[in-house]
């Protein structure tokens, strides 16, 4: 799943996390720019299911991270093509 800001507006991926799959072809990745408002995310038409190869074609920086396990949460390092693991508080 990804927001249309990435696929249609060609925005860069800034935040992504992986959860358990909801259906057989679901990778579990949830991919965002990191700049979306809650109002934007709450609109069903703003999030859709895309093949990972389609998302990679828009932002290939994410490809090296897609083998990370369920529970992984990543954010882009500002001004970089790298991502870092988001540490949970507590």
Written overview of the protein:
The chain is 17% helix and 21% strand. The radius of gyration is 12 Å and the shape is globular. It has one domain. With 90 residues, the protein is α+β, with helices and mostly antiparallel strands. A 4-stranded antiparallel β-sheet has the order 3-2-5-6, with no helix packed on it. It has a two-stranded antiparallel sheet with strand order 1-4. It starts with a strand and ends in a 5-residue tail after the last strand. The chain is built from 3 helices and 6 strands; from the N terminus they run E-H-E-E-H-E-H-E-E.
Extract low-pLDDT stretches.
Answer: none
- Gross morphology is globular
Number of helices: 3
Number of domains: 1
Major sheet description: 4 strands, antiparallel
Strand coverage percent: 15-25%
Mean pLDDT, to the nearest integer, reads 93
Helix content: 10-25%
Terminal CA distance: 28 Å
Total count of strands:
6
Oligomeric state, counting identical vs distinct chains? single chain
Radius of gyration based on Cα positions: 12 Å
- Strand order, sheet with most strands: 3-2-5-6
Which series of helices and strands comes N to C?
EHEEHEHEE
Helix and strand topology:
Blueprint: E1 2-3, H1 4-7, E2 15-18, E3 29-32, H2 38-41, E4 47-48, H3 52-58, E5 73-76, E6 83-85
Antiparallel strand pairs: 1-4, 2-3, 2-5, 5-6
């Amino acid at each position: 799943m990804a927001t249309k800001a990435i696929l249609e507006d060609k925005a860069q991926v800034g935040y992504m996390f992986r959860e358990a799959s909801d259906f057989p072809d679901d990778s579990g990745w949830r991919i965002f720019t990191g700049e979306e408002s809650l109002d934007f995310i709450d609109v069903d038409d703003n999030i859709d299911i895309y093949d990972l190869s389609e998302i990679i074609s828009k932002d290939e920086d994410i490809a090296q991270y897609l083998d990370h396990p369920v529970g992984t949460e990543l954010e882009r390092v500002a001004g970089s093509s790298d991502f870092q693991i988001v540490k949970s508080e507590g």
